[in-house]
Amino acid sequence: MKDSHILIVDDHALFRTGMQMILTQVGEARGISEASSIRDAFDFCESSVDLILLDIHLPGLNGIDGIKPLREKFSGVPIIILSASSEHSAINDARHLGAAGFLNKAALAEEMVSSISHVLNGGTCFPEDTDASHYVSPAGIGKSLTPRQVEVLIYLCEGKPNKLIARELEMSENTVRVHVSAILAALGASNRSEAILIAQREGLTT
């Protein structure tokens, strides 16, 4: 992945930020580009993209319907669908339309990086293809954070309380508390303040 340039197509800026941090700090990708829609993705040159991470829910043309035009535009560039759920029908649609993989957004950072690397090496990464040989344990303190937890961590560093984080990310306060607990455990922090200091020191939110 170190020599790869990855295009993230997702309409949520915070998720794109979280993925960019994971890909550069854990996966050590050479370059990351971002687009908020299929239309925006067409602004990029085919030769500058090695892999596309495509959100399934997008404004205008959705991810599944966008696979075909993106494959025509970016000939030979593998596409991985990203989704908050793993519905069998969506996975089958993605596979039949020529996607190289389907990843759940709740996957751990190291699993995402390993699956993406596997696709860059010519493989596929659909849920039923999961194999321990695809996974490695990259170095980095944030390797066990999911993209969603990175989003929560960013808001924590901005000093936002759980109630506001829940509102911004459209989730329940209880879900936010679960994410915060997971973040503290992953960073080895005993409280929110310590987690923020560790995140800032390690550059996890910049």
From TrEMBL:
Alphabetical UniProt keywords: DNA-binding, Phosphoprotein
Domain Response regulatory, first and last residues per copy: 5-120
Superkingdom of origin organism: Bacteria
4-aspartylphosphate: modified positions: 55
Protein name: LuxR family two component transcriptional regulator
GO BP annotations listed: phosphorelay signal transduction system; regulation of DNA-templated transcription
Pfam family, one: GerE
SUPFAM superfamilies in the cross-refs: C-terminal effector domain of the bipartite response regulators, CheY-like
Record-linked InterPro entries: CheY-like_superfamily (IPR011006), EvgA-like (IPR051015), NreC/VraR/RcsB-like_REC (IPR058245), Sig_transdc_resp-reg_C-effctor (IPR016032), Sig_transdc_resp-reg_receiver (IPR001789), Tscrpt_reg_LuxR_C (IPR000792), WH-like_DNA-bd_sf (IPR036388)
MF terms (GO), sorted A to Z: DNA binding
